[in-house]
Amino acid sequence: MFEIGRLCLVVVNEKKNKILTENELLRDSPIIT
Questions:
Q1: What pLDDT is attached to residue 9?
Q2: Alpha-carbon 23 to chain mean position
Q3: DSSP labels, the chain
Q4: Extended strands (E) in 1-33
Q5: Distance separating alpha carbons of residues 9 and 19, to the nearest angstrom
Q6: Residue 17, Cβ neighbours under 10 Å: how many?
Q7: What angle do CA 17, 21, 24 make, to 5 degrees?
Q8: What is the predicted pLDDT for the residue at 11?
Q9: Taking CA 18 as the corner, what is the angle to CA 27 and CA 16, rounded to the nearest 5 degrees?
Q10: What Å distances lie between residue 2 and 5, 16, 18, CA to CA?
Q11: What is the pLDDT of residues 1-24, one digit of tens each?
């Protein structure tokens, strides 16, 4: 039970980090329209 919960937390954190880094890349990169 605890292992599954920990894995879920890791996955959620990785998804959050990925979204944050993607937003930073989009913000830092020149706007392409």
A1: 92
A2: 9
A3: -HHHHHHHHHHHHHHHHHHHHHHHHHHHSPP--
A4: none
A5: 15
A6: 10
A7: 140
A8: 92
A9: 105
A10: 5, 21, 24
A11: 678 889 889 999 999 989 888 888
CA distances from 25 to 4, 6, 9, 13, 18 (A): 31, 28, 24, 18, 10
Residue type, 7: L
Token pair in block for residue 1: 């039970």
How far apart CA 8 and CA 4 sit, in angstroms, is 6
Does 31 score more than 70 pLDDT? Answer: no
End-to-end CA distance of the chain: 47
